[in-house]
Design goal:
The chain is an alpha+beta fold and about 210 residues long. It has four helices and eleven strands. The protein has helices spanning about 95-120, 140-145, 150-155, 205-210; strands at about 5-10, 20-25, 35-40, 45-50, 55-65, 70-75, 125-130, 150, 170-175, 180-185, 200. The strands form three sheets. Strands 4-5-6-7-9-8 form a six-stranded mixed β-sheet. Strand 2 (about 20-25) and strand 3 (about 35-40) form a beta hairpin. Helix 1 (about 95-120) runs parallel beside helix 2. The chain is globular and about 55 Å long. The model has no long low-confidence stretch (mean pLDDT about 85).
């Protein structure tokens, strides 16, 4: 793809991403992994902002596409820290899971509020991609989606699955401004991690005219 966003990115000699421009920010808690934006378009500016008391963060880059600027955010919100493969999931450990999820939702709320405040200064088109660690029914999703469209909803088909779980669960998203045309959306089943890659093809003219 022209732009590739990876959460929890770890350099690996066996994997090569041959892009002329890249923005990699390692976690404040670890120099072994972080987040990355790879691009065929040159960067004008790039940056990141960390969240308090967590390894999650958001990185961003302003890209020069033809003669216009677009902002790309690579988002990784707080994990719920659930293991869907545990036999007692949702049964014996229900109370412990409830407390854990409640705490994670509160952390996510602070993270989303910080993101919303950060994006207010951007006057050009924005692409938001990332692992929200929450579903399309969540407050975090609905808040980030405001004045945007979910590329799966715009161009996807059937039940989508971005997380390796027993039933279809979408917690990874690509969002774009409402007036932009989405030509294609697809999720893959390549087993690189417990998340599946997703791709969206965005109509460039409608993006730059936005």
């Amino acid at each position: 793809p022209d732009i590739l966003c990876i959460q929890e990115y770890a350099p690996n000699d066996k994997l090569s991403f041959d892009y002329p421009y890249k923005h990699i920010v390692f976690s404040q808690n670890s120099k072994q992994f972080g987040h990355a934006i790879f691009s065929k378009f040159p960067f004008i500016t790039k940056g990141s902002f960390d969240f308090d008391n967590t390894g999650n963060n958001i990185i961003y880059a302003d890209l020069l596409v033809e003669k216009d600027t677009i902002r790309v955010y690579n988002v990784h919100l707080e994990s719920l820290k659930l293991d869907p493969k545990m036999d007692d999931f949702g049964k014996k450990e229900a109370i412990r899971y409830k407390d854990r999820i409640s705490t994670a939702f509160q952390v996510q709320q602070h993270q989303v509020e910080k993101f919303i405040a950060h994006q207010k200064s951007v006057s050009y088109p924005i692409i938001v991609a990332g692992d929200f660690n929450n579903t399309a029914y969540s407050w975090a999703y609905r808040t980030i989606l405001k004045n945007r469209k979910d590329t799966y909803v715009a161009a996807g088909k059937g039940f989508d699955k971005t997380f390796d779980f027993a039933f279809p669960m979408r917690i990874d998203f690509i969002m774009i401004d409402k007036n932009v045309t989405i030509n294609h959306y697809k999720s893959y089943r390549d087993k690189y991690s417990d998340h599946f890659p997703i791709v969206a093809r965005i109509d460039r003219k409608s993006l730059l005219d936005n």
